[in-house]
Write a structure and sequence with these properties.
Blueprint: H1 4-33, H2 37-63, H3 83-110, H4 114-144, H5 148-158
The structure holds MU-OXO-diiron (FEO).
MU-OXO-diiron (FEO) binds next to helix 1, helix 2 and helix 3.
């Protein structure tokens, strides 16, 4: 049986992951509005990934005999100045999530909850990838600046993500 403290922290993380999904879904629709359908595709795939993260925590909590408690999801922003501004927000958000995962790891250690500690290692590794992906796209956007044709090339590249 999982501790109440750990249960509460995982429920908060389910909310963080669903908010992440919500944020990226909002960003995807913002890019669709700008006719940057490759960017919208990348973010739509990311939206699904975040729901997958929430589901992983959900299933784990049930497996450990915990109670899932769903909380209100806050409203995400719906406009960004340009793609660079949006991907700065993605990177900042992923860094925030990494911080939250690290806090969960610290709590699992403090509670001597080895099962949760082991489960969280997947998320520790996943966050390395999440930050690297956002960083890579941001670096390209910084490189191209306002050059429209290069931006369309990045858009075409992001359309490939499945
Ligand atoms: Fe679920 Fe993008 O972290």
């Amino acid at each position: 049986m999982i501790s109440k403290k750990m249960e509460e922290a995982i429920n908060k993380q389910i909310n963080e992951e669903i908010y992440s999904a919500y944020l990226y879904l909002s960003m995807a629709s913002h890019f669709a509005e700008q006719n940057l359908m490759g960017f919208q595709n990348w973010l739509f795939v990311q939206y699904h990934e975040e729901l997958g993260h929430a589901e992983k925590f959900y299933k784990y909590l049930i497996e450990r005999g915990g109670k899932v408690k769903l909380m209100a999801i806050k409203e995400p922003p719906d406009t960004w100045k340009n793609p660079k501004d949006a991907f700065e927000a993605v990177l900042k958000h992923e860094q925030h999530i990494t911080g939250k995962i690290n806090e969960l790891v610290d709590l699992a250690e403090a509670e001597k909850d080895r099962a949760t500690f082991a489960m969280l290692q997947w998320f520790v590794n996943e966050q390395v990838e999440e930050e690297a992906n956002a960083q890579e796209i941001l670096a390209k956007l910084e490189m191209v600046g306002d050059h429209k044709r290069s931006l369309l090339m990045i858009d075409r590249e992001l359309a490939q993500r499945k």
